[in-house]
Amino acid sequence: MTLKILVTTFSLCLAQAAYCGVDLNACVTDAAELTTALAQAISNGVSTDTIKIHTGTYKAAANPFGAAGAFPGGDSITIEGGWFGTMAVPCQTQSTDPSLTVIDGEGVRGGLQLWHQAGTGSITVRNLSFQNGHREYDPMTFSNDRGGGLYIFGSAGGKADVLVERCIFRNNYASFLGGGLVASSDGGTVTVRNNLFVGNTAPEGAAMQVFGNNSLSYVSNNTVTGSISSKAGASNAAFTISGSNTVTLTNNILWNNTSGTQTDLYGPQLLLISNDIQKISQTPAAGSSGNISVDPRFLGANDFRLVSSSPLINIGVNVPLGGLSSLDLDGLARVQLATVDLGAYEFSFLFLDGFE
């Protein structure tokens, strides 16, 4: 009975938000509630909306979550996973583990789509896992062919700032670009930091495409591995950077992505600072420094934390352009000693000397 009352109250609040124009602060516990919350955040006018997603696995009924419409200009939307609690208060506490809240495309549909119309605002996505997303162009339905896991895009003049932080993108596919993620803005700042990309597939830019115009883009402390570029002679395997933005990559690991003639990343105006990049062919922008190409020494075949002897520990930039996440992907303090590590995980010295 308590759960039924909770869900009914939640539905009534959403219905009121549709015509009252109030901010949405929703806790969702299943796929139907997530679909409804996104629809109401889209329709309640210019607002500041928050959607807290309870731990669990979410599978859309047909199209990607959020595919029903576009956020109006001026709207700010925050979507966070990891929430849990009691039946009466289901989103009382938040776990820092993004693997506990999963958006699963089941290999047949995209995960989450967030479209921002012309105007300012922001889109923030954090603490979620996106897996098995699938985007493939269909001329009959004009379905999109980018951003298999998460697709954030803006209309012309869509100046929303975009932040994607502390997420996992695993085994997603797109038939054109950005198998794991597409993050774009036409005038806002795009920031992608502290994420893990593993096993994503696209003809090129298999992990991610960042697109930005007339502003800045920041990509920092991400671990990108196992990217599969399916196009022979593609310019890059992992990252595609597009648009007129100056893009700064700091503290990232790009390793064990598709090799051959392909490089790990491609794009104009790339400022590269303190990254570990296995394969790069283009000359980075003036001011680039501290980049290396060495085996990161991951903990295991499917564990992308660093071993204690990794050369990537304590060699990063503590104040990267675009900012540093306060926590790493394990929920640890992002800086354990004096200097940040490269990649999404900070090595913890707490468990050395047999204290595991």
Roughly what percent helix?
A: under 10%
Give unreliable regions as ranges: 1-20
Q: From the alpha carbons, calculate the radius of gyration and give it in angstroms.
A: 20 Å
Helix tally equals 2
Number of strands: 30
What descriptive keywords fit this protein?
single chain; 356 residues; 30 strands; 9% helix; globular
Structure in words:
Helix 2 links the parallel strand 1 and strand 2. The chain is mainly beta and 356 residues long. The protein contains 2 helices and 30 strands. It has one domain. The longest helix has 19 residues. The strands form 6 sheets. Strands 1, 2, 4, 5, 8, 12, 16, 20, 24 and 27 form a 10-stranded mixed beta sheet that branches. Helix content is 9%, strand content 34%. Helix 1 runs parallel beside helix 2. The N terminus is likely disordered.
Provide a short characterization of the protein structure.
The chain has 356 residues and is mainly β.
Q: What's the structural blueprint in terms of helices and strands?
A:
Blueprint lengths: L1 H19 L4 E4 L2 H13 L4 E7 L1 E3 L17 E9 L8 E2 L6 E4 L7 E5 L5 E5 L2 E3 L2 E2 L14 E5 L6 E5 L2 E3 L2 E2 L6 E5 L4 E4 L2 E3 L2 E2 L5 E5 L3 E5 L2 E3 L2 E2 L6 E8 L2 E5 L2 E3 L7 E4 L3 E4 L2 E2 L20 E3 L2 E4 L50
